[in-house]
Amino acid sequence: MIIAKNTLFPETKIHGNGDKKFIVFTSIHGHYSVEKAAILLGLGSAAVWEIDVDKQGRMITTGNFPAGMTAPRHIS
């Protein structure tokens, strides 16, 4: 997670997260270490969003998200 954040937002390596509100998506079957990593990275456990899965274990990317938030897009 830190490599992805630093690659996309290199200024955070020097200036911290500032006013950026990062979110970590994981499935409801995600390992507890995802939350622990978010805490260690200073994102906080509230930044981890558990996403429902279908019968094949794939995250369901449509549904109820907080106001202003749309479903994550598929990355192919």
Task: Compute the separation of the termini in Å.
Answer: 19 Å
The oligomeric state is single chain
Instruction: Quickly count the helices.
Output: 3
Question: Poorly predicted ranges (pLDDT <50, ≥5 residues)?
Answer: none
Strand and helix order: HHEHE
Number of strands: 2
Overall form: elongated
Strand line-up across the major sheet: 1-2
The largest sheet, given as strand count, sense and whether it forms a barrel, is: 2 strands, parallel
Structural class: alpha+beta
Report the β-strand fraction as a percent range: 5-15%
Q: Report the radius of gyration as a whole number of Å.
A: 14 Å
Helical residue percent? 25-40%
pLDDT averaged residue by residue: 83
Please provide a written account of the structure.
This protein is of the alpha+beta class and 76 residues long. It has a domain at 21-64. The chain is 26% helix and 11% strand. It is built from three helices and two strands, in the order H-H-E-H-E. The chain has helices spanning 2-8, 12-15, 32-40; strands spanning 24-27, 48-51. Strands 1-2 form a two-stranded parallel sheet. Helix 3 (32-40) links the parallel strand 1 and strand 2. The protein is elongated. The mean pLDDT is 83.
Name some characteristics of this structure.
11% strand; alpha+beta; two-stranded parallel ribbon; 76 residues
Describe how the helices and strands are arranged.
Elements: H1 2-8, H2 12-15, E1 24-27, H3 32-40, E2 48-51
Briefly say what this structure is:
This protein has 76 residues and is α+β, with helices and mostly antiparallel strands.
